[in-house]
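Incident log, entry 3
Record: LIM zinc-binding domain-containing protein (138 residues)
Problem: checksum mismatch between cached and fresh output.
Input:
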Amino acid sequence: MLKDLIAAETVAPEKCAGCGIPIRDRYYLLVADRAWHNQCLRCCKCLHNLEAELSCYSREGNIYCKDDYYRHFSARRCARCGNGISASDLVMRAKDLIFHVNCFSCLICGQLLRGGDTAGIRDGRVFCGEHYESEVLR
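Fresh output:
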């Protein structure tokens, strides 16, 4: 037991990948093969602390929260806002276009459109039924 304690004390503590200060805390996070103080693991875009999150993402040496990772790297993008769509996002589909639920709204009045609502699409732009008939088709 004493041998283990002495051996452990001779090993230099790992440095935090976030702040560069040696980690002396009893508990720390190991993400992307790098050690982090709990308070130092943050999304590189929004700076949200990721200590309590169930997952985070690493790409090109940067750490991202789920929202920012999908926003920047997702292959599927919302036709209205252009942000990425994650597998867990609720979406609306119209023709070959995909929209976040909150982005599927009339371009003129802003009314959110739900399944079953009358809507029209012209050049990737969404209109409620009323404005499609009065503004687009006339």
